[in-house]
């Protein structure tokens, strides 16, 4: 089961190696993805149709589902599932709506007023994974903040299923989000299509959404080589659970497996000060894997995962901060005391009754989160991710009097005479006419 490392026995180099999640050491994925991007740029829709056949094993007649097709699929699902998606929609909406806060204007000097105003990113692309599992919840996690932000055009791509459509749950999310078209494109080719545009798929300003290694690699290449931005690298799922003798080993094992079942490249890390807990969690993992439908996937992920034995909870938190997990679960009685020590994490789950699945689906927080240690510098998706904040300023006659000389001196010391002149000319005009606007 989980291989075990002892924190105090590891050198800094060993620790760095353990927290490094380089999923493409031979650069094989990089090469594949570069080729896909190039094919989409040169062959457009034809390349997308070819890739649907090659990777998704489906021959498509057209690259999208229209409003009527979406409506039919949406209402083919059960009432219980509709209700659950609606409750999730409402909770996610409630949590995200609060993120639209108006900022105050500030007078930095009398007559010099500065402020910021939000404007939605006009054209956004949402990628909804659909390879090993279709994730309608991801559609809500991306579509709701995009709608709250007020984005004008929302382009949605998801891999086609075997019947050449998307599943009904995804269609029901489109209905809730008032999205009238879904493009049947998956993987790196979807990212390339939204970055460059094709005859069918509009080019967008920013691409959002998680995905497998091909999707994540495509996003990072697009970010570096085009003017299309990305939300963040949100690749294979990860969880780090901090636990001790107060933890329930069955709950801990369940949380580790919940992320392990996402994909063979997922990682689940247990950090604890208790050897006994590691043994119990291993036992529980065996029991739960025996009845898990996706055991074949989860077992590979667990074999690439590990337990870290620490001296105490502070050391455990220190390791967690180095690892910067996408999801951090603190499954101990003393969670309140150590929460203050969190420096790096995408989303945090506190106590024994807060499974990570709550945030994946329905509590309200966003599940599109930075992976591969990017939680050191990125936040998860929020309404802010769909907005630009533009700065504004206005200077009155009193203001230019107050600040003018400072600007002149600073422009002079940088040797930028034209900058200085833009102020001097105004001060002179103002002093000549004794008027200003
Ligand atoms: N970090 C987050 O916020 C977050 C959220 C949800 C899901 N996830 C992760 O998203 C991932 C979803 O992955 P998935 O595979 O199920 O779906 P996916 O939609 O990301 O990928 C499926 C596509 O991958 C492409 N593909 C498959 N094999 C290929 C190959 N050999 N060469 C080139 N392209 C190929 C195909 O085009 C296919 O349509 C999982 O790893 C999951 O952990 C992360
Ligand atoms: N755990 C994933 C983020 O890493 C999100 C998800 C969607 N559905 C289930 N889980
Ligand atoms: Zn999940």
Fold and architecture overview:
The chain has 437 residues and is an alpha/beta fold. The protein has 3 domains: 150 residues, Nitrogenase molybdenum iron protein domain (Rossmann fold); 194 residues, Nitrogenase molybdenum iron protein domain (Rossmann fold, 3-Layer(aba) Sandwich); 38 residues, no CATH class. It is 46% helix and 16% strand. The strands form 4 sheets. The chain has a 6-stranded parallel beta sheet with strand order 1-12-11-10-13-14, sandwiched between helices. Strand 3 and strand 4 form a beta hairpin. The longest helix has 19 residues. The radius of gyration is 26 Å and the shape is globular. The N and C termini lie far apart (74 Å). Bound molecules: nicotinamide-adenine-dinucleotide, L-histidinol (HSO) and zinc ion. The site of nicotinamide-adenine-dinucleotide has 31 residues, from helix 3, helix 8 and helix 9. The site of zinc ion (ZN) has 4 residues, from loops.
